Structures are given as structure tokens and as C-alpha cells.
Amino acid sequence: MSDDAPALLGPKEIRDLAERLGVSPTKKLGQNFVVDPNTVRKIVRLADVRSGDRVIEVGPGLGSLTLGLTEAGAEVTAVEIDHRLAAELPHTARAMQPGIFEDPGAPRLRVIRSDALELSSEQLGELPGAPEVLVANLPYNVSVPILMHLLELIPQLRSGLVMVQAEVGHRIAAPPGSKEYGAPSAKAAWYGEWRIAGNVSRRIFWPVPGVDSVLVGYERRAESRGDEAERVRTFALVNAAFAQRRKMLRQALQPVLGPLDRAVATIRAAGIEPTARAEELDIEAYLAIARAHSTEG
User: Fold this and answer.
1) Choosing a second label site near 248 at 20 to 30 A (CA), which of 47, 73, 95, 226?
2) Rounded to 5 degrees, what are φ and ψ at 162?
3) pLDDT tens digits for 167-187?
4) How many Å is the maximal CA-CA distance in the chain?
5) Which domains are assigned to the chain?
6) 163 - beta bridge partners?
7) pTM of the model
8) DSSP of 216-242, one letter per residue?
9) Mean pLDDT across the stretch 95-102?
10) Over 50: is that where the pLDDT of 4 sits?
11) Is 80 exceeded by the pLDDT of residue 26?
12) Strand (E) positions, 64-147?
């Protein structure tokens, strides 16, 4: 490999970089750094990242996955909460992949210093184009809130691949009727199709986590299920249903639909049995109830 050929971070580079920056991975920020280049390239391959794709990455950390994305030719927007890591990432990229980053007139990496949960449309509006692919090793402790925030914030996302705790990943991708199916499953399905794309060994992380991880893939629906007002009403029903998932819908949805007789009438108007329970309904059924409720007034 020539000096200008793309390069990725290995265990030694990761630890040397962390030591120089005085960075120790913290549970508070859900940090587990990927130290295996082969896994990085596997993630990029499974995400089907192509040259010229506009990718958004959350929690790039020391840059392991970032460099895999730029190696594939992507234009990366990295969102990092840690000010030290955010400041260092462009320097790491130029040092590891000088052939890619030598042209200042064509920036391939942009870093947004922000909590991903507070990322705004104004910040994204400063980019030359909206991100279209999400690829990230999401912080374990807030992976679902971050994912939902990004899906709502960036409707242009056509696909994604995220690494999350195994339990969380199976919950996101779960179909109705399964034991893992819950509010995150139903809400995620609003935006598109989800699948478990692969497993990840604990040994590829530093520090080694106490839980297993999986890769979860996403493909956006060709057409939107509904407008923003319908999404909000539908998600309110999902929240109410799963807050009391042991109860029948006619009881669980009363906080949104009103008294029992009105709730029963609304659910039936949507073509659904009031005695059904939360985990039996797909997102289309919740949308149907939301539409039936909105026509009552």
C-alpha cells in the first residue's frame, strides 16, 4: 500500500490517539470505540455506501468508522458531542488519509460539535446537501432517542445502518406480534423497513462492552405514510398503547381517544377490534385509528 492509500485506525492507533488527547471512553456518553478495521469495512459494505454519498455519522469518536466511510468515497457529516474528539477528527483524517483530504476545495468531512439529540435543521441547513445515508455506532444509552430524532429531522434519509446493543436492535426491527415488538418498533416502521443485518463481536470494541451488539439496516419507504400532523397523532396513540400494553386498546387508548364508549367507537371505525392489544397492531393500524379520531371532531 502506498503512502497516499486510504488507511484505517487499528488498536494501537486508537489507544495512542486517546492517550494523547487524554480521552477515556465513558459510560455516561455510551462510548465504545471500534478498533477493528475489518469490521469497519464490513459496516461500510453492508451499508452499501457509494462514492459521492452524503453520509451522516453520529458519535464518530476517534474516527474509526469515519475513515472507513471516507475511504469508500462518501462525503461525511460527523456529529460529535465531545469537544476534544470533534476538534481532533479532521486532523486524524488528514493524517491517516492524506491522498483523500489534500484538496481543501472539496471537503469530504464536516464535523458538527453537538449533542445528537439537539441537532437542528438550522445546523444541517449549512451543509451543501442534506444527508441521505445514516451510518453510525450509536451510543448505547441513548440509541433509540437519537435514531428517532434523526429520522424525524432528516426525511431525505434513504437508507441507514446502525450498530446498537443487540436487545435494542432486535426491538427496533421486531414485527407486530413478536415478544420484542414495542413502541420503538412501531415508530421505526413509520419511516421504512428494518432488518437485522449482522452480529458484531464484543472484541472489536475498546473498552469491551458487557453486552452484545448487532447491525440494524434501514430502507426508507417510497412514499410517506402521512403528513407530520398524522405522524404526531399516530405516535401519541403508540405511546399510550404501549404504556399500558397489558390492557386492551379500548382501555389503553382512553387518554388519547376519550371515555370508553368514544374510544370503542373510534377503534371500531378504524376497522380494529377494541379488545386487541398494543403488540398486535402494525403502524398502519395505529394510523387508521388516528385518522378515525381526527374525523370525529
Assistant:
1) 226
2) -125, 145
3) 999 999 999 999 999 999 999
4) 74
5) 11-220 (3.40.50.150), 228-294 (1.10.8.100)
6) 137, 215
7) 0.92
8) EEEEE-SS-SS-HHHHHHHHHHHHHHH
9) 86
10) no
11) no
12) 75-80, 109-113, 133-137
